[in-house]
Amino acid sequence: FREDFYYDDTAGYFVLGGSGYVNGIEAFFGPVKYYRLNVLETEQISNPLHDKEAMEQIELYYERCMDIQEIVYEYRYIVKQGEKAQRSCYYENYYLELIHKYGEKSKCDAFMWGREVREKYHSLFKLLQEMDFSAPDVLEDGSDTALEVGQRIFEKVAKSLSSADGLSNMGSSVPLLVDSSCCGYHKASYFLAVIFETGLGVPVDRAKGLLYSLIGAQGNERLAVMNLGYKHYQGINNYPLDLELSYAYYSNIAIKTSLDQHTIKGEQAFVETIRLMDDELLKAQTKENGDVFMWLKHEATRGNAAAQQRLAQMLFWGQQGVAKNPEAAIEWYAKGATETEDPVLIYDYAIVLFKGQGVKKNTKLALELMKKAAAKGLPQAVNGLGWYYHNFRRDYRKAAKQWLIAEELGNPDASYNLGVLYLDGIYPGVSGRNQTVAAHYFYKAAQGGHIEGTLRCSLYYITGNMEDFPRDPEKAVIWAKHIAEKNGYLGHVIRKALNAYLELSWHEALLHYVLAAETGIEVSQSNLAHICEERPDLARKYLATDCVWRYYNFSVSQVNAPSFAYLKMGDFYYYGYQNQSKDLELSMRMYAQAALEGDSQGFFNLALVIEDGNSIPSYILDHLGIDQTLHSSNTSLLQELYYRCWNNSNQESISPCSLALLYFYMRVFWNNILQSTLIYFMGTFLVSILVAFAVQYFQSLSAHNSPVTRSEPLSDEPSSSGNRNEDATRLVQQDESTFSSDLAQQEPNPQNPLVRS
Looking at residue 42, what DSSP letter applies? Predict the structure, then answer.
C-alpha cells in the first residue's frame, strides 16, 4: 500500500486477507502485523517479502504479460473481422460457398506487428496461426481466448517435457511457460515456481520462484497455494517462518478440497499413499486393460459383490491407476444394487441418485435404497437417512434420531451433522445455539477423518476462541495441511508421476514427483528421494539441488514421516553424506525416532552405535522409555535394545534381530565363563609362585645350617670338606632347578595336586 490505512474493527471480525463475508485484496502482500491499540509510523513498518529484486521481477512479469495479452486479443480481433467480411461476401458459385463453410479456417497471415515483436514472440504467433477462433466455446468478447491460448501452450510444453529426453528441452520451454502464465493459465505458473526454486534444468533463482508461486496462488492454482503454505510452515528457501500465513494458504485449499470432491469435472484423482519401495502395492497398480482390472471386471460380471464394489470405487475416484470414469462407475453401482444384497453397493447407488452425480436424480428410488441399506445395519446408510430428513423434509427430530443411532455405530459423518444442528441452533428440544457442544461433535468427527470436522477444529486452534481449543497455530496448520493434501488435483499429479515411474519414463516421473513434492506432501518427497537414489545420473544432470538430501530431509520434518526416511537420515549423519558433515547425536535421534515408529532397524542401529564405543544421551533413552537404571550399563542397554529389536521384528522367522540377540547372549555367557576361569587360573598361579618361593627359602636355610647332615646319606665313607661342600652346593642347586622345572610343567594343569593346594 502506498500509504497507511486505518480500520475500525470494533464492529466485528476483521480479516485483511478476506473472509466468508469480505472479499480479499487482489495484490501481493506478505505477513501482516495488526496493531489494535497503537499506530506505527510508516518507517517502522516492514514487510519480510518486500524485496527490491522480487518487486522488479513482478514489474517485468506484468510488462511482458501486457504485451502477450495485447497480441492475443488483437490477433483474435483481426481474424474475427476477416470472418465477418467473408460472411458478407456474395459467393459467385456453390463451390466457393462450400470452401468457406468447410475449408481451412481463417487465420492472419499478414502481420501488423513489427519484425522485432514477431521474432520475440515467434512461438506464440505460430500457435495463434494454428488455432480455430470460430469455435463455439470461445466467447464473443474474447474473455476465454487468452486462457485457451495459455492452455494450448502449456499442453504443448508439458508433452515435450514428458518425452523420453524431455528435461533437456527445459531451456526452450521456460519462455513458453511464461507466455502461458501471462495468458492466465496458472498451472504454468506453478511449473515455473518449481523449476526456478529447485533448479530443474535451469540455474536456481529464488526471486523468480517466489514470483511465480505468488502469481500461481493469486490465479487460484491449488498446488501453488499449497507450495506457499508449506514453505511458510517450514521456513525454507528463504520464506519467512509464519504459521498464521501458512494456515491461511492451507485452509484455502482445504476448503476447496471439500468442494472439489463433489465435482466430477477436472483432472482429479484419489490421493493414494503408494511408496516406490513397496513392491506389493506397485504390483497391485493396474489400468483398464491390466490383469487386475480385467479379473475384477470378470468377477463383477459374474455377480461378485466385492468385485463390483471395488471396481465401482476405482472408476468413480480414479484409484489404483484406473482413469476416473464416473459414468462407468455408476453402471456398476446400479448393477450391484439391483442384483446383490450388498448394503455398501446399495448405499453408494442411493447417494449418486440423491445427488444426481453422473445420473438423473431419482429421490424416490434413492430413499428406498437408503432405507434398505440402513435396515441391514450399515452406519453410513443410517446417517444417509438422517441427511434425507434434514435436507428434503426439514424434519430435524427424525434427522437427529437417525444421526444419534449412526454416531453410536461409529460414523463420523453423523457426529459432524449433530454438531451442525447444535451450531445452527436447531437441535430438537434445545433452545439457541450451543457452540461448545457443536465443537465437541466436530472434534469427534475429525478424529474419524471427517474433512469438514477437521476444518472446523483447525479454525478453533488458529483463533483459540473456544474453551476446549487453546490457541495452537502449529496444530491448526497440521490439521489444515492434512485436508489440503487430499485434493484431487494434487492426486492427479501424483498419479501421473507413479504411472510414469511404472512405465520407466524417468524424465516424466522426475518432473511430476518434483511438482508434487514441493507442495509438501510427504509420500512424494520420499518417493522422489528414492528415484534420485535409483537414478543418480538423472538427478545430478537436471536438478541443481542435492535431491536425496533435500527430500529425505523434508520427509523427516513431517508429522507422518516413514521410519525408513529416519533411518536414511540417521545413516547420512552417522557416516557423513557427500559434503554434509557427520553428526553423531542427530544420527542417534533419527534412529530413535525410527524405533519409536516401530521399526526394529532403529533399535538395531542404536545397539551398533553402542557397540562402536559411543554412548547414547540420556534424553534419547528417556524418549524411548528405557528405565534409567539401565542407562549406566552398556551391557544392560545392549540387552534391552536387542530385545526390543527382536520384539518389533517378525518373531516367526529368523531375522537379523533374533540373530543379534542370540549372539549377544552367547557373548555374555562366554565372557562370564572366561572371566571366572581366568580368575581361578590367576589365583592358582600366584599361590604356586608363593609356594615355590617358600620351598626355595626353607631349602636354602636348611642347607646353610647343616650341610654335613645333608651330605651324609650320600656316602658311608668320609671325604675331604672342600669337595664335599662343592658337591653339596651343586646338589642343592640341582634340587632347586629340578623343582622349578617340575613346577613350570605342572602349572598349566589344573588337576595337579600342588596347584589345587
Answer: G
Average pLDDT, the chain: 81
Element (H, E) at 398: helix 396-408
Q: Is residue 125 one of the residues assigned to a domain?
A: yes
Distance (Å, whole) CA 604 – CA 497: 34
Secondary structure string (H, E, C) spanning 582-646: CCHHHHHHHHHHHHHCCCHHHHHHHHHHHHCCCCCCHHHHHHCCCCHHHCCCHHHHHHHHHHHHH
Statement to judge: residues 749 and 601 lie in one domain: no
The DSSP secondary-structure symbol of 389 reads I
Residue pair 634/610 in contact by the 8 Å Cβ criterion: yes
* Cα 490 from Cα 519, distance rounded (Å): 9
3-state DSSP assignment of residue 162: coil
Contact 224, 217 (CB under 8 A): yes
| Same-domain pairing of 610 and 673 | no
Q: Which range, of 156-165, 304-313, 552-561, averages the lowest pLDDT?
A: 304-313
Last residue of a domain, one of 170, 185, 220: 220
Question: DSSP string spanning 666-694?
Answer: HHHHHHHHHHHHHHHHHHHHHHHHHHHHH
Quick one: 64 and 188 in the same domain?
A: yes
Question: Over the stretch 598-631, which tens digit does the pLDDT of each residue have?
Answer: 999 999 999 999 999 999 999 999 999 998 888 8
Determine contact, residues 574/602, Cβ cutoff 8 Å. no
Structure confidence by residue, pLDDT tens digits, 536-557 = 999 999 999 899 999 999 999 9
**DSSP reduced 3-state for 264:** coil
* Res 721 pLDDT > 60: no
Helix (H) or strand (E) holding 312: helix 305-317
- pLDDT value at position 123? 79
pLDDT-derived band at 168, boundaries 50, 70, 90: very high
Predicted confidence (pLDDT) at residue 757 exceeds the cutoff of 60: no
Grid cell locating 317: 475416484
Q: Could you tell me which residues are beta bridge partners of residue 577? A: 580
Using CA of residue 672, residue 674, residue 677, residue 682, what is the dihedral sign?
negative
Would you say residue 535 lies in a domain?
no
Please state, in angstroms and rounded to a whole number, the distance separating the CA atoms of residues 589 and 595: 10
* Cα angle: 589, vertex 590, 591; to 5 degrees: 95
pLDDT tens for residues 17-44?
Answer: 555 555 555 555 555 666 666 777 777 7
| pLDDT for res 745 | 39
Residue 101 has pLDDT above 70, yes or no: no
The residue among 195, 220, 245 that closes a domain is 220
Q: 66 and 204: one domain?
A: yes
Contact between residue 519 and residue 236 where contact means Cβ atoms under 8 Å apart? no
Query: Which distant-in-sequence residues (6+ apart) come within 8 Å of 263 by Cβ?
Result: none
The answer to whether residue 751 scores a pLDDT higher than 50 is no
pLDDT of residue 750: 40
Is residue 549 a contact partner of residue 582, using CB atoms and an 8 Å limit?
Answer: no
Question: Per residue in 344-381, is it b (16+ CB within 10 Å) or e — as a string?
Answer: bbbbbbbbbbbeebbbeeeeeebbebbbbbbeeebbbb
Give the separation between CA 234 and CA 232, rounded to whole angstroms.
Answer: 6
Nearest to 352 by CA among 307, 377, 317, 376: 317
Query: How far is the first Cα of the chain from the last one, in angstroms, to the nearest whole number?
Result: 102
Residue 211, domain extent: 52-220
Buried b (16+ CB within 10 A) or exposed e, 105-144: ebebeeeeeeeeeeebbeebbebbeebebeeeebeeebee
Q: How many separate domains does the chain show?
A: 3
User: pTM of the predicted model, to two decimals?
Assistant: 0.78
Name the residue with cell 598361579.
685
Integer CA distances (angstroms), 458 to 244, 419, 444, in order: 12, 15, 13
pLDDT value of residue 428 = 93
